[in-house]
Amino acid sequence: MHKTPQVNEVNEFIEIASDFEDPLEVIREALSNSYDAKATQVDIKIEQDDEGRNTLIIEDDGHGMDEDNLSSFFDLGNSNKDDAIGYKGHGTKIYYKSDKIQVETVKDGTQIESVMDQPWAKLNNRELPTYSVDRRDVDEPSRTRIEVHGFQAGQGFDPQQLTYNKIEHYIRWKTIGGSTAWHFSNDFHAMEINVELSPTIDDTRQPIETDNRLKFPAENVDPDGEFVAEAMCKHYPPRELTVSLDDGRELTIEIVGMVGGKEARNKLPTYGKHSAQFGIWLAKDHIKVERYNDAIGADNEFFHFFFIANCQELELSANREKIRNKSGDVYQAITDELDRYMTKVCQETWYRDYIERRKLEDKKRSIQSQESSLEERLERTRGADGLSPSNPAEVIALLERYSANGAPESLQIADFQMNDEVNAILDTANGYEHASVQVKLSDFFEEETPLSNIDRFVCWKLGDLDALTRIERTSYLGEPIRFDFQKGEIQYGSEEPELIPVLELDGKVT
Amino acid sequence: MASFEIVAEAGEARRGQLQINDRTLETPHLFPVINFYGGGNEGALFGGGVHRTVKEFLAHDNEVTGGKEYSDLFRGVMTSIASLTDYGIREKKLEWYLGNEIREWECFSDYDGMIFADSGGYKILEQGGGLEGEDFEKEIDQDKALDMQLDLGPDIVVNLDHPIHPDDEFEERLEKMEQTAANAARFAERREEVEGACYLTVHGYYDAMLERSFDLVEAELSEPIPEAFDGIALGSLVPRKDNVEVLVEAVSDCKHVMQQRGYDDLPLHVFGISGKAMPLLVAVGADSFDSASYLHQAINGKYSVSLFDYVPIDEADFDACDCRVCNDDFHRARMRNEMDDLYQKDILGSVAAHNLAIQQRELRQFRQLIAEGDQDQVAGYLEEAAKDQKGFRKFVYQLINERMNPYFEETDTTYA
Ligand SMILES: [Zn+2]
Q1: HEC per residue, A422-436
Q2: Residues A277, A134 within the same domain
Q3: Which one of B384, B399, B415 would you mutate to disrupt binding with A, by most A Cβ within 10 Å of its Cβ?
Q4: Is the pLDDT of residue A157 over 80?
Q5: Which of A437, A470, B160, B310 gives a 20 to 30 Å CA spacing to B66?
């Protein structure tokens, strides 16, 4: 006996409709369908009534739908649009997450009105929703109007999260609205896109009016000025790369892009975390899908680049977010060729000059900040009326002056490690000594640093005498301690106390 | 006696003819390193394992060549006086070797290619200024080196040099350059004893070093360089042989220094380099190379599939190679170790001949391209050759971008 595997149709619909996560994907689907219908104009409205229910209205002047097309629109898995952007028409199933879908379409003089009631509620009741079809002849041009009432995609479609700004960037980055096709095709199919939100959602600005051409910030290849690298920008004109596969097939990759500094890149309408959106994008239908930054190589940082490499041989997941055929030779051939192309870009004279210029400007910036901190220090020194070391290294310089100017004993620094607790080796008449060089002696004790390995202190000032006396009155690391400021020594420890000489330079050096 | 004629140029690459006495060499050319004396006697082609098999190819030994002609692999060969002591030789035997010029021995009498006799500066420097045999140590100075070189009956000789090393301190490098310059001056004084061409060695990794090297030689010489020498040989690159960027810079800078000083009619030889870097170095003006890599790779069991890649011999696909060695069942059987009584040298000798054939084939193709004088084609050849060589191709693309055809000359302002 043979049995045929059964498909639970209701579950299929639920799953596909739920496969789309970003509520904005509904806009992507709408734009793609209108584009596939050869529309030159598409208007999207998102409205919200007093009870917070959302209505999407999508209208275009495309070739409209006949009854077969309408079936594809509502049915699962049989798209008759072979080169359509929407993956097998699954995209429109996102509309099922609503209270009512209403379609009004005109094709070749026939108008169809269709209504599907409570699709989401019915699916969740394990019931397949149905739709009505009413036809009549009309004398008007082709068009389609889709209304989705009570729409609630993904984790809940919250129009309050939508703003014109967000939608505009989404359209430019993730949909046909950010297409690079116009660089490559002479018979490019242009489309005007309008998006209007009801004022309860966003009343901050005018509706979005845009098109389906992704544009780069203006070129700025060799600007004048001291700090210009951020604004530099170069376009890499559209190129068609062809690659032959082992089986003789030829692939075409259409690539276009730019290299630029931060200011230039900020003019790009990225969606999501801005800085993470740069690099090399693989695209299908000239819409970005996934990045392949490996093409740039480890020597170069991805964020200087924004390239879109389109190849129709890429196969996408249902929600168009991922490439499915990554393990095949097609993907391998595409990425190999991209590697080569990007190597050419990275080895180009302009690019290398740009990177050089960036480095140079970074250095100049750091010199400038160094200059201003030197300036500040100079001011401080002037204001302090004489010597005032601010770190142990400067104390060492004063110690040298002290030794050179007829000090009772000659003390030379033999070695110095800025951050060590015992930071200096002193060369004295009695040989080498471990020493701690401090601006203020009291700072050393504040840190509660052990004294065991210190033979001598050199400091500019004793510092806070009260703080030292306070230590004297309690104890230091559990042992008695005495500071004899007259003799310049510290006595430390209970049983055989250690004597640690202290040299205070203030007043002894001019 | 010696002349160098440039037949065609494509960018900085050039195709030339080096004429020495009655021998002509098409450049760019690769001189395979041959060890003519490997410790044996004349009947055994002076021995030397795989070296011997290679010599049998060179000397048309039918038992080894399978009756085929391989002289095109050996139009010009390089040998070094330092290799005379490679096999722990006794002094008597050395004298015997040097008693006849190479072509005076019956076994090499048919050899009609050019012999480039190197001074062996690198090895002599390594051995503290001398050559060591089984029962002798010889201090080698410029005069002794040249005497030995001339004993070989060479077509090209070169002064005894003191190669520098990337790690040398400035003072050490300077001293070596001064010694090389002094040797060059002494070498020039004996120019008349040389019947062939005299090459001058220079050393340096970038322009300032090379300028110093040339300055020191010019200061020592009593006549201009082009009157005393027929060619320039750039040395000291072997320690950096895997760093293509350094090689390109060195050769290119050497070429520019030569141009500035009016020496660009002299051929430029690059010591000790072959393989994947060769086309790039030709593209920046090198005219000849020498290398033993074809042989060392064979000894290490490596079979070249291109200038870039090799595979272990037992994975080699002889059908995919168009060289005569691989198209000869006799050598296939040898390389597959399918014959009785085969020595390792017989197997590896055929592999070495194949490896050499690959390198010579590439250079021959490149020569033909340059002859057409079309820089685009040269760039196209380089690009095609490097297209699957990750890491390497960036140097090729850089070279093409900067010196040949920029990939993105002008951007198209009709869009954006
Ligand atoms: Zn072969």
Answers
A1: CCEEEEECCEEEEEE
A2: no
A3: B415
A4: no
A5: B310
